[in-house]
Amino acid sequence: MNAQFLTAFSDVSKEEWSRLNQSSNPFLSHDFFTSLESSESAATSRGWQPHHLSLSDNDGVQAILPMYLKNHSWGEYVFDWDWAEAYRRNGFEYYPKLVSTIPFTPVTSDKLISPSVAHQNIMEPLIEYCQDQNIGSWHLLYCPETSELPHDVYERNTVQFHWFNKQYQSFDDYLSTFSSRKRKNTRKERESIAKHGITIRQISGGDITPEELNFFYLTYQLTYLKRQHTPHLTFEFFEQIFKRMPNNILLVIASHNGNDIACALFFYDEAHLYGRYWGCSESFHNLHFELCYYQGIDYCINQGLRSFNPGTQGEHKIQRGFEPVLTHSYHWVKQPEFKAAIKDFCQREQEHMRNYLIHCRESLPFKQGTL
Description:
single chain, alpha+beta, Aminopeptidase, eleven-stranded mixed sheet, three-stranded antiparallel sheet, 10 helices, globular
């Protein structure tokens, strides 16, 4: 197949993408990638230089791999800052690197958009390309697990916590699978929201008003500013996806004394819910748990969705019934001086993550025999 690298997602036709893309994942939609780039959220000016791989033969485009040339490691959620620092200390340049991911979206999916080409089939060509172009490394993030790897491609794992719908009929039906103490704690958390006089509304994407969008973005910014960080995504990005993807968006807003005080934004497809962004202008105990977790579980049960991915990290999710799930990413580095050290790091990290997953499963709140 012929390889071509595209410098903008607008060079990928929506028709070709739709023909190749067999997933209903909203983050793999043409509209999502288009909004990221056209809103300047994932753009060269922010260290995300589009470098999308298109593979074609005589019958047309057969595969597309979204990729970015990067000069930093923000927005990836598979952390390699220590690798970059080790390079710097030893007089080497770690960047630029070539990263295949959905920017700012740590959700497992087929990053190679193709009905016929597998991830492992493009690893050797990517190695050759990086060597030819003097690119120091490539990284394939949050993709399905594969065991067929070139000898110097290394796997990394992280643990996320996901909720799974066991055909629950109601939230109380779900809680009936908890041990008595855990069930009581969860009910107290939810009841505390009503005792504060807080009301909550769920709004589908097409019904979100400009005022609600403005309030959401205010709280989104506050979440970053509290950590002295700059928000990754621009207002224009959310403005665009609310228009382009209304059937994949759920906004949950909490109000107190007639004023909106907090938001949580979710995406969904035909089977899955994804919690993505949260923020508040006024803080109440347990409000984060209610908006980001319990409202999502309620929505999944009511809509018959199979699973709920609320985002990265957070051991506090375990006691609320979110089960540990292993994620997979693959990495190649060009610099021979670092190959052995990075391989050893990845192997030790893998062992730690798999042991951590077992430990987390032992801490789940379910009664024996219900998991």
